[in-house]
Specification:
The structure is a single chain. About 35% of the residues lie in helices and about 20% in strands. By secondary structure, it is an alpha+beta fold. The protein has a domain at about 5-125 and about 160-190: Immunoglobulin-like, CATH 2.60.40. Helix 2 (about 195-235) runs antiparallel to helix 4 (about 280-290) and helix 3 (about 240-260) packs antiparallel against helix 5 (about 300-340). The longest helix is centred in the middle third of the chain and has 41 residues, at about 195-235.
């Protein structure tokens, strides 16, 4: 921290090298061990200086790019609330199921004048979030949240632990940009090679892309199902209303049948209901990603075979869904237009 830095509007300090540590078996210890220490958050601390407070609606960004210039993570920071305890910033521990599922974003990035630090947990942006806008089957008491949706209990967001290498950290404040290099080092205790890690990353990236594609379609299906449920509440009891209600029920049943191949639609997220119903495709993809990413080794022959099988199931799901859009949703909308009723919207909300 020099007089030149303190006189500038902003400054990004050079990050120290960080290790991409992998899980180990923790030594046994009693909870009251007086010698126990505290580890820092997992990942890379990013330190920067701001001379002035951000305006209320002003945002600054911290971006992480890989050696190819591709952005792997971006954090949007705002001015810290007065009197509030400032959190350590985005990131979180380096664990998590499904190759690093959701719930790791941590608190929002809030900054104040002076020195600031945020942590990058060495993971990529979380994947597509499954947003369920309907209640579980046979559990109508479980409603979507105040935002209009609820999380899928059996489909997490895959976030990949980035491989060792040199990354570029960019701090953007207004029109000014500051960059520094960040070296992410392989865990020296890991038995896998960097070639193994790259092979694993390619496989995990395929699982993430498959999960994202399924999530986008599920979100569309949920939007359609929610619109059908709202439409049925507005229909009258005359012959026209009964005909449309029957068609809406048939369409909803077809959507449930195809969606049920990738999500267990009976899950409520409460108690142990996940032990009562078998896992479906999204849960299996997450499990495979979690197991494959648990070490620094390349995927096994069996994992590759299961990945291919799950990819084929995902392709079949997409084909069936597209057939419903063409053969069922389009004619249903034509029926609504004949009755001067607004159409069902298929695009993402």
């Amino acid at each position: 921290m020099t007089p030149e830095i303190s006189a500038s509007n902003a400054h990004l300090f050079a990050p120290r090298d960080v290790y991409r540590f992998r899980p180990i078996a923790e030594p046994a210890a009693v909870s009251y061990d007086p010698t126990a220490g505290h580890n820092p958050p997992y990942g890379a601390p990013i330190n920067f200086y701001l001379k002035s407070k951000l305006a209320e609606k002003e945002r600054m960004h911290v971006t992480i790019g890989d050696a190819n210039g591709k952005t792997v993570r971006e954090f949007e920071c705002r001015a810290a609330t007065e009197g509030a305890r400032r959190p350590p910033g985005p990131g979180g521990p380096g664990g998590g199921g499904g190759g690093g599922e959701g719930g790791e974003d941590g608190p929002p990035c809030e900054v104040k004048p002076g020195m600031n630090r945020v942590w990058w947990n060495l993971r990529s942006e979380p994947g597509t979030e499954f947003r369920l806008r309907t209640s579980p089957l046979y559990a109508p008491d479980v409603k979507p949240g105040p935002e209009g949706w609820r999380q899928a209990p059996d489909a997490g967001r895959i976030s990949l632990l980035e491989p060792p290498g040199t990354y570029t950290v960019t701090l953007t404040v207004g029109e000014e940009k500051f960059t520094q290099k960040l070296n992410v080092l392989k865990d020296p205790h890991s038995g896998g090679t960097e070639s193994d890690i790259q092979t694993q990353m390619q496989f995990l990236a395929g699982l993430r892309d498959e999960m994202n594609s399924i999530g986008a379609s599920v979100n569309q299906i949920e939007t359609i199902r929610a619109q059908l449920a709202a439409l049925q509440k507005e229909l009258g009891n005359d012959d026209a209303g009964k005909a449309i209600r029957k068609a809406a029920d048939d369409l909803a049943d077809k959507l449930v049948a195809v969606e049920g191949k990738v999500l267990q639609l009976k899950l409520t997220g409460r108690g142990q209901d996940s032990t009562r119903w078998p896992p479906m495709l999204a849960s299996k993809i997450g499990y495979l990603a979690n197991e494959t990413s648990s070490s620094d080794f390349a995927p096994t022959t069996q994992q590759l075979a299961v990945g291919k099988e799950l990819k084929d199931q995902g392709d079949q799901f997409q084909q069936e869904y597209q057939q419903i859009l063409a053969k069922d949703v389009t004619p249903f909308n034509a029926m609504l237009r004949e009755k001067n009723i607004p159409n069902i919207i298929v695009t993402m909300p």
